Amino acid sequence: MEAVLDTLQNLLGQTAFMSLSWGNYVMILVALVFLYLAIAKGFEPLLLVPIAFGMLLVNMFPGIMASGENGETEGLLHFFYRLDEWSILPSLIFMGVGAMTDFGPLIANPKSFLLGAAAQIGIFSAYFLAILLGFNGEAAAAISIIGGADGPTSIFLAGKLGQTSLMGPIAVAAYSYMSLVPIIQPPIMKLLTTKKERAIKMEQLRPVSKLEKILFPIIVTIVVVMILPTTAPLIGMLMLGNLFRECGVVKQLTETASNALMYIVVILLGTSVGASTSAEAFLNINTLKIVLLGLVAFAVGTAAGVLFGKLMCVFTKGKVNPLIGSAGVSAVPMAARVSQKVGAQADPTNFLLMHAMGPNVAGVIGTAVVAGTFMAIFGVG
């Protein structure tokens, strides 16, 4: 009988109930909320479902993210997390984005680059604010890149700048704001524009030839990487994926990069990012600062894009709808869809999606360039 009681006692001691802290229960609740938003409300389920489930797992069984130090067995999701730290998964995500995205609207309207550049103001405003809040330069840079609403770039830069301790909160904030683009952006867009401006119809974009689409990723890679070599991992993979798409001779590679490989990488990246949010790592004052700084960066980036769009509207005598400037953040194609939706609310016959895709693609390139700039500033290759 004593042996039975000892066995039962040992089993009870092995349950999660005996080892969880109040912080673990808070994070489990947060994970369940994320799962609800993803499944019931449809907020970027491809991102939030794996992130939330990784968060759920690590707060019930911390060993799943064990680093293998001090003789412990390395946890399953820590193997995935290493791919984040080594910048492998973010770079592969960029290749998939390139393979899935039509760069034609940006080629047809090169002025879109200016809107994408304007939206990066949010990143730099958050960078200086983060320094004022006590973060060092590398940490401030890694946090501020959230303003691009670009999860892979946030993870990439945090890893390159040695900010792995902040990678979980940074990545969760970045992906959360990506999923909340349809909620956060419209009030800012409407506040800064009039109904008349939102109803502006833009001229149809010119057709883009196949040759232009093939040359674009090659030329951009050469120009950007020659000027800023540190952008090679992100810009290179983005443009390689797009070249797969446009050259027309590697259909199998295009399909793999934009479908199977992309989804595999999202699963690995999402679960490992979620698993980096243990209660000990996540529930602290720095996390709150990161979440607030990310919101500031994203809001300022959206506002800067819209305001620059208003300026272009003036200079073109009403030919540019300012709403497309909000798509200058890097969330592709969500931000472009929001521009379309808000424009259609002002005039149901208005179609801004393709016009907004130009700044949206420019925002992806711009955020990668800003990340490369920070790496160059801090001497990271």
What report would you give on this structure?
The chain is mainly α. It contains 20 helices and no strands. The chain has helices spanning 2-14, 22-39, 45-60, 76-85, 88-100, 104-108, 112-118, 121-132, 137-144, 151-160, 164-179, 181-192, 195-198, 210-227, 232-247, 251-275, 279-282, 285-315, 334-346, 353-377. Helix 11 (164-179) packs across helix 18. It starts with a helix and ends with a helix. The model has no long low-confidence stretch (mean pLDDT 90).
Net shape:
globular
Largest sheet: none
Tell me the helix content: over 70%
User: Approximately how much beta-strand content do the residues carry?
Assistant: under 5%
- Number of contiguous helices: 20
CA gyration radius, whole angstroms? 22 Å
Q: How many E strands? A: 0
Query: Element order, helices and strands?
Result: HHHHHHHHHHHHHHHHHHHH
Average pLDDT confidence is 90
Provide the structure class: mainly alpha
Question: Which spans of ≥5 residues are poorly predicted at pLDDT below 50?
Answer: none
- Terminal Cα span: 64 Å
List keywords for this structure.
381 residues; mainly alpha
Detail the topology: elements first, then pairings.
Elements: H1 2-14, H2 22-39, H3 45-60, H4 76-85, H5 88-100, H6 104-108, H7 112-118, H8 121-132, H9 137-144, H10 151-160, H11 164-179, H12 181-192, H13 195-198, H14 210-227, H15 232-247, H16 251-275, H17 279-282, H18 285-315, H19 334-346, H20 353-377
